[in-house]
Amino acid sequence: MRLTRPMLAATAAAAVLVLAGCGSGDGDDKAAVPETASGSLEHLAAEVGCKPTIQIDADELRQASCRKSDADGKFLLATFATDRGQREWIDGAKDYGGHYLVGRKWVAVGETKKVTATLRKTLGGDIEEGQDHSAHAGH
Prior knowledge:
Helix content is 32%, strand content 25%. By secondary structure, it is α+β, with helices and mostly antiparallel strands. α1 crosses α3. The termini are far apart. About 10% of the residues have low confidence.
């Protein structure tokens, strides 16, 4: 299966919308962050103790949904064939908000900051935030 940029953007947007939630978190955990994990989607999922439900299995992108009880929510885990493909996916997805834990050629998208902070304790990586659209929400 060959994915085009519009398909990747649509996938990223759908992932963020599926995972979107009005959660509150207490920010990044300031504890020591382990070295950033690497490996296949299944390896990363095993590191955090979840059984991935594969959604996309393509050469450029592998994506699965996961749930981990101590992360207090669902998250999306994606691995990429190239750094460029990963960055394009993240840049497109961040327009829709969300919380991203980013490693080399992988990303975990949490429905709350707490999810990404919890995953970071095991996977390492850097936390990035999508655009905050709460100011645009109706009352």
